[in-house]
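Lay summary. Proteins are chains of building blocks that fold into shapes, and those shapes determine what they do. In this project we predict the shape from the chain. Here is one chain we studied, written as its sequence of building blocks.
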Amino acid sequence: MNHFEEMLQRANLQNISNLLQIGCIKNELDKENLEKREDEAVKVLEQRLENLVSGSFYDEVVEAAMKYANDCCEVYFGL
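And here is the predicted shape, written in a compact code that computers can read:
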């Protein structure tokens, strides 16, 4: 493979995002679409919080965690 093709292989949003955030490209890209990746991340968060938080506070904690995640995304996007 020539160098141009190698550069095109690395020129994707996952690698660019990883490069900007932590300074290196990913060794293995996630093949799932962004919506499915987000859905899976939320599912994992909700499952973990269910084990940590009692029923009456669960919704408040999920809302606070999602607000925090959105704020972090906004900061990283701004950078």
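What the prediction tells us: The radius of gyration is 17 Å.
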